[in-house]
Amino acid sequence: MYSIAIDGPAGAGKSTIAKTIAKKLEFIYVDTGAMYRAMALYFIRNGIDPLDENAINAACADVHVGIAYENGAQQVLLNGENVTGLIRTEEVGNMASKTSAYPTVRATLLDLQRDLAKKADILMDGRDIGTNVLPDADLKIYLTASSEIRARRRYNELIEKGEKADLAQIEKDIIIRDKQDMERKIAPLKKAEDAVLVDSSDMTIEEVVECILEEFEKVK
């Protein structure tokens, strides 16, 4: 069985790229960010302060995040409820960035993530897959892009959905989230020493996909 780890900052296009590659290779795609977002949604719904680590730790005992697949697409379950369509808001993303730094939150999901990798060929994306979750992955990719490009992509995504969006605020949020992810004490966002750096700022989705598939051919 093979495993591919794709790490990188918020808005780098990890999910889009990972889904495309997983489909081409017929791998199981695991979006770990969605799992942290599901936990974040629980914290928001229950009015828990992201700065109150004790309250977050206590709440983790009441949270079960599961993964299911429908027609090959990952569905995220929060205590049995399919929350896939509820976890992509900026509010949930910001809560996830703050609370994913806590050891209890990470431990809650780590075993589930590693178990998934033992059962099938998988492609997993997140912030610390190559450095922490799957340190022995066959291929590690660090996918990034400039904050300006990432903000523009997110802005266009929201506009296409008919939502209001402020480009300057989105970029500001992305820069803050990068800082939080890179400076957290537990499993910070960083490029694994043996990861291949892919900067998608000036690349199309197709070019990024082709680049990563070429890298995978080298390790097969």
TrEMBL record:
CDD domains: CMPK (cd02020)
GO molecular function, one term: dCMP kinase activity
The protein's name: Cytidylate kinase
Record EC number: 2.7.4.25
Biological processes, Gene Ontology terms: nucleobase-containing small molecule interconversion; pyrimidine nucleotide metabolic process
Keyword Iron belongs to the record: no
The reaction(s) this protein catalyses: dCMP + ATP = dCDP + ADP; CMP + ATP = CDP + ADP
Assigned protein family: Belongs to the cytidylate kinase family. Type 1 subfamily.
Domain Cytidylate kinase: from-to ranges: 4-217
Keywords assigned: ATP-binding, Cytoplasm, Kinase, Nucleotide-binding, Transferase
Subcellular location: Cytoplasm
Pfam families membership: Cytidylate_kin
Main localization, broad class: cytoplasm
Domain of life: Bacteria
TM spans (from-to): none
Cellular component per GO, a single term: cytosol
Alphabetized InterPro entries for the sequence: Cytidylate_kin (IPR003136), Cytidylate_kinase_dom (IPR011994), P-loop_NTPase (IPR027417)
Annotated residues for binding of ATP: 8-16
